Amino acid sequence: MEEVTCEICGSAEYDVLLNKLWLCEKHNWSKDRIILFYNNVPVNYRNVCCKQCGLVYINPRMTDEETIEFYKRQYREEFTAGKKNESWKLPFTNLHLGIEIYNAVVRYDFLERLGYLREGINTLDIGSSLGALPAYLKAKGCNAYGVEISQFSEYTKDLFGVDTIFKMTFEDFQTDMKFDIITICDALEHFSHPQKVLLKIRYMLKDDGIVLIEVPDIFKPHKALLGFFSNAHLFTFSPNSIRNLLNITGFEVLQFEYGGYCMNMRVIAKKSEAKKMQFKDDFPAIVDFVLRYHKCYSALEEYKRGSLSYESAMAVINETIPEYSVIKFLEALRLIDKGDIAGGKRLLFECLQSDFNEENLCVQKGNIYGLLAIASFNNGDMENAKQFMEKAYELLPRFYDFPYLEELERKGFFDFRGFVFETYLSYIGLSEVREILKKQQSRYNVKNMRKKTGR
């Protein structure tokens, strides 16, 4: 363990935002519920906020050497593996593989939409995990590579037939190749020295190359705070702090939005001149938001347990973060299940007005439109079902386009229907509605033609 200074401005002065070990002792919680142990010593438990620039980071933390060993031996089992897939002894769940494919599709769609993808370009994915994104890019004609330190890199060839994933730290990765696109998604916050990582990325990019970064936003959590302030996330960025980090390492932001499974900050940047730190986060504002969000999430948990009515839960939401929509979404599903289609659809429409990010895939806008299409169809409202269906297909990630999906299912490596049902996604129901509407339209066209021709 070691004390560290702020990665962005170098200040050693900070305020403590969250001390997990202290919370365990105060509430007599079992430490192994929320505290990470490394060599039987609790680590990564205190999040602090820099007094000078507002960056939130873990301090003290494991040394660089301890961090590397942790990711080699412990991280995947601790945070992402879940129960093994017993059908073929994989150290991850069907849900985990589904989310990786989902994110690969989302990121591919995003890069394609902005016009960055073309055959023959060189791409590198840092923290590539099972390698779904490099596999997708390679299938589309890119020279795609990945770097992954954990044992998950060993499964990319079995899953996708791709052998261009290097099992090593990014710090140790060396190549003379220059890249058109480097992606570092859900990874930058895990590095001990993100400034050094970005400087190396800058060196490895072609002059006209771009980097895609996805990191969580401290002002848009997507789970309980003790989980959101993950022991494995050495940094918790804000829009200000990620822009500061890019400025001082010589990048210009080209695109900023939210996307992916966790609806994290999504940044496209290109090489530029280094600039001084320009932004600052306010510690009291962070504390205020964190406390308000905690009240929202607590109301959600009580509502799900049935100890808080919908009306009482929404009263908490309206007093704290009115745009928080999960409780409203769950109530909409409950109403639809009870047969109150109109009431459920009304709440789903209200959910569409919120821009607050949600980790749950089914609460994102594309899926809500899918659910509206299915509900309208089941209620006999074919016109609205068609309109909602078209909007859903416009917004939902093109999961069915993932080139390895059929082969993964054939080999028994992935159960698509199981993933869809576990995450309450509308893909299957939406597909069934589309096929029925197509047949109805086809019958209508034939009938109309017969009338016109007198046959």
Describe the structure.
The protein is of the alpha/beta class and 455 residues long. Among the domains are: 94-280, Rossmann fold; 325-440, no CATH class. 46% of the residues lie in helices and 15% in strands. It has 18 helices and 13 strands. The strands form three sheets. Strands 8-7-6-9-10-13-12 form a seven-stranded mixed beta sheet, with helices on both faces. Helix 10 packs antiparallel against helix 11 (310-320), helix 12 (326-338) runs antiparallel to helix 13 (341-352) and helix 14 (365-378) packs antiparallel against helix 15.
Map the helices and strands.
Elements lengths: L13 E6 H8 L8 E3 L2 E3 L2 E5 L5 E3 L5 H10 L1 H6 L13 H20 L8 E5 L5 H8 L3 E5 L8 H5 L4 E2 L12 E7 L8 H11 E11 L9 H4 L6 E2 L2 H10 L2 E9 L4 E8 L11 H23 L4 H11 L5 H13 L2 H12 L12 H14 L3 H14 L9 H6 L5 H8 L3 H27 L2
Helix pairs in contact: 4-5, 10-11, 12-13, 13-14, 14-15, 14-18, 15-18
Compose a concise summary of this entry.
The chain has 455 residues and is α/β, with parallel strands linked by helices. The chain has helices at residues 20-27, 64-73, 75-80, 94-113, 132-139, 156-160, 194-204, 225-228, 239-248, 283-305, 310-320, 326-338, 341-352, 365-378, 382-395, 405-410, 416-423, 427-453; strands at 14-19, 36-38, 41-43, 46-50, 56-58, 122-126, 143-147, 165-166, 179-185, 205-215, 235-236, 251-259, 264-271. Helix 7 links the parallel strand 9 (179-185) and strand 10 (205-215).
